[in-house]
Design brief:
344 residues, alpha+beta, Nucleoside Triphosphate Pyrophosphohydrolase, 2 domains, 6-stranded mixed beta sheet, 17 strands, globular
Amino acid sequence: MLRCLRVLPARVTRNFSRCCSNYVARMRFINKLKEDEGACLTALESGDVFLYHTLAPLLRKTQQGVFQLPLLPFKDLEGILNRLGKDGSMVKDSVLITCTEQNRALFCLDVGELDQRAVEKECGGNFVDLRKAFFTLRGEEAPLVARGQALLRWHQGNGFCSASGKPTTRNQAGSQRVCHSNGLIYYPKMSPVIITLVSDGKRCLLARQASFPRGMFSALAGFCDMGETLEETLRREVAEEVGLEVVSVRYSGSQHWPFPQSSFMVACHATVSPGNTQVDVDHEELEEARWFTLEEIRAALKLRTPPRDPRDQPPTIWVPPSYAIAHQLIREWVDDQEHPYDGK
């Protein structure tokens, strides 16, 4: 029986100490599943699994037109695999993702070796490209499918040891891979990326790459070079891409991002001197970059879905959707403009 995810992150409750106690218990439970093979298998057999097909998540559309992430109990998935001519034990290849507040474990599994349409028919859903899925899922489900895809992609790309060339084997939770010929242990990794919204005090700077959807602008972003601090990366990227020199930096937050292959986004606000705002775009990196006023940003934030402009008309400016940390940076900048800090 298909179910849809209802509870993911720990919710803040009035009884704060109880909330913290539940969180600690959940984290220790997840850690136990990563370390105890038997406990993880038991949790899988009583847990739920969501599916991918060649890294595209399975989604189901409700009667209200909302897309949801369907969850399959272990036994139901075994039955589906058997009906599709696959050994039901394949479900044991599932990777641990998290658990609900009720300590029901959630796993993911890629069934790319099966016929896509047959799986969709059995499960009553459709496999959707992850970039498209982000625009249709509820807020708490988007990071879940991103994490699942990132872990599955990592396992697909790390089947052999880089030192010995021998096959690696994963633990039951899928939280690590081991080369038994030399004892090396491999853990999933993320690439650190700085994303920054640059402001001159009255305007903010947004840019777009040629690969972006038509009309979409976002904050500047770039990978950290080996040995760099986050601050050094930020200043270098702004200088390289738009020819501006940053004078101050303020941390905002962070986010896992599955593209291109699992990035760790560190978000910051950066300020340039009002007397040094001439943009010099590196067109090898960016298609366009320019300053936007508060009114222009407000208008862009009102768009809930990508606009469908005729090709013979100038594109409507829009910004990344609410699940993206670039959206958070832009909203914070608007809030700072509308409610400036007076130092008191």
